[in-house]
Protein 1
Amino acid sequence: MNKQLNIGLFGLGVVGSGLWDILQEQAHQPFSIRKIGVQNPEKQRTPPAHFLTLQPESILEDPGIDVIVEAITHPEEALALVTQALRNGKDVITANKKMLARYLPQLLKIAAENERTLLYESAACGGIPVVRTLDEYFSAEPLDKLYGIFNGTSNYLLTQMFRYQLPFAEALKQAQEKGFAEADPSDDVDGADAKHKLILLSAHGQGLWVHPDEVLHLGIRHIQPEDIAWAQQQGATIKLVPTGKRLPDNRVALYVIPHLVQRDNPLFHIHDEFNSVHIEGQYSGRHVLTGRGAGSKPTASAIIADLQGLQRRQQYRYSKKRLLSRPALDESLEIPVYIRLPKSAETSVNLESIKVDSVEIDGQNIRLEGHVRLSDLKSLRGALHAAGAFVMQR
Ligand code: HSE
């Protein structure tokens, strides 16, 4: 008989309310939400008022609560809650990818010092069981590559723009209404959210943890109908793709950039909020995990899986960290790129580091195809972003 777990929940947004709803439907589950920490007392909510509290301590210090489920937005506020929970002897399940990507080593240390467990399947790719898969199943096999679609909002936007010619702002509004987007969707459209998930998956799959500031991300904020038309002329589509690629000498290239994706690439067929994680093992070859990467119940289902994991005393092993000798970030990889920027911005971006194959002037835009090293692209990122350029890997 499984032990009943009493939950203190922080956050009643998309993920927290999904957890509440599933546990109402699945009353047989041995999980019971005891208290819910919220910030806004005025908001209309489904759970009865006696579950709600504005006082985090009344949850963190409640000896009747075994596990904290953290599902708030702000990474530093989440860090404070999670740290205190671990110190108070509670296990923690968190959906907060931004907090984890920034503070993973620190959090693991605190969890170990307090002999507590920290699980976060819901933090990467919603309902897809990828953290556990990488951590357990692929704990010994070196991975040549880890890539795919890790952000539901941007994939939803691209799908709507390509299929229905929906304007960017309209597609984003829909993604927000459906509960896919972050409270501030900048991280979704600029590629940072996909990067946070890449960092987490790379820690488990490639043994590398890197601070998010070190990793290049470029997003889809500046995509224009002319970029979409250009891709369609090639019979291709565009997807936002995070990549962790193994290079010689145990070095790893990590980066997030939109990709031109041809029809014969399985990512071409991943639509809407679906995510797809491609794992290329040195010996076993390619594996693909596809599923709902965002949304209330898919994400909450991963929290339930973690609750069950806690009952089985599941712990992440981070075996790659121990098995591989010091994997290091490498930015020397050169990638083929397409850059489209307004003619007016030509002088504000120094494109000298790009090996140019072709340049076209098209109306008010310059379209350039060439090759660039990741380190150079990272240096150019700020200027390209400010200039409204759209960059993708060809
Ligand atoms: N905003 C995220 C996404 C939610 O769109 O993928 C799931 O992490």
Note: Residues 128-293+318-330 form a domain with the Dihydrodipicolinate Reductase; domain 2 fold (CATH 3.30.360.10).
Protein 2
Amino acid sequence: MGALTEPEISDEEPMSGHGPAIPLTAMKATALTGVAHVPGDKSISHRSLILGALSVGETRVRGLLEGEDVLATAEAMRRFGADVSRSTEGEWSVHGVGTGGFMEPEDVIDCGNAGTGVRLIMGAMATTAIAATFTGDASLRSRPMARITDPLAEFGARAYGRSQGRLPMTIIGAHDPVPVRYTLPVPSAQVKSAVLLAGLNAPGETVVIEPEATRDHTERMLRGFGAEVSVEETGDGRVITLRGEPELTPQSIDVPRDPSSAAFPVCAALIVEGSDVLVPNIGLNPTRSGLFETLREMGANLTYENPREESGEPVADLRARFSPDMKGIEVPPERAASMIDEYPILSVVASFAEGQTMMRGVKELRVKESDRIDAMAVGLRTAGVTVEEGEDWWAVTGVGPGGVPGGARVEARLDHRIAMSFLCLGMAAKKPVTVDDAGPIATSFPVFQDLMEGLGAVFRRQNA
Ligand code: S3P
């Protein structure tokens, strides 16, 4: 289990893996104040390592997220033949093997909790004539992989997994890959990315059509690494075309801070009385910033300070202050993809708003690290909040600022975002909230506890 406390800056690579459950209680906080420097973006960190491994020469990465998910991807890239090393906190270097240069791993690749890691890596190896077997923790082994293996089969790859396309799974990469034209059946950046990464080692043009825009880091980064990628907005959605078999050139990458991690100190500040928190350097790429837009529509006192452009991406410092006048809203379903990881924490904020927050078009939430609608609904109800749900929607009826009873012990279900969301709930509820296992937080936000304590949050460790 990765420590929940901030790792000391050292030259030693942090450990990953899961151990015994770490129950943790969040007490009501008086006010959250100060500056919160959240870690690097998880999506961009995975992609930096994978694209670095597919380039010839040295890619240098600064600000890499050293969470368990990303560490598992770093280890996987080594198993496929790349030389991946860490010099100091957040600074990594990858000597890649080039497009089509992956070696066959000698043993099973364990991706831990990381859906993004395993799906992108499967795509990256599926058009090379090697076999690899993937597994992960109990959460990852329950998640659907057919969404990845279906398009990979069109390239000529074969997949042998457990029933319902679950891990462990062996992928036999295509000997003579053919390019693919694929329309995404679900709005998923992971599927889009797996197809594009597979397309790198196929001749000709691989085309992905996404009816709903999802995060576009893979397209942007592939271009940065020298691949030819065009994007056309059409009546059918975004049409992304990649020319196969490029020689990727190594890059120097500064990983921006993760808006999905920023969501936690921002949302906690909105609901804890007296709070005023600054979260600097957050990317506001429109494919990622739906939560912040939604919060502002609800009446949150959330401002974008010092807005600027960095590496072609809009960036700002987020300032969040206690917002006693928030109102429930209907979240536009077309915004879902741009805030898909943020619905759990939004549901916590909605609990402290006046009236109902309706979230539709969100069935993808049911196949994340946990069924996030069910996990939040069950826990919020235990904490005294009214939640209704259907297959594709859920609605939270807020009780106004300070009105949530709390006093609950809830299950995190091996899901980092569920654990952090309920801990934020406990910071503002009348009575403490305990999560049964805060360990999974280390997958994406290893310094969460320290960072929140630095702002004024109060946690208590419980015995398992
Ligand atoms: C991610 C895509 C999203 C998101 C995940 C990260 C990515 O998953 O939930 O945390 O980096 O591509 P889906 O592609 O399943 O929507």
Note: The pocket of shikimate-3-phosphate is lined by residues 43, 116, 188-190, 193, 215, 340-341, 364 (CB under 6 Å).
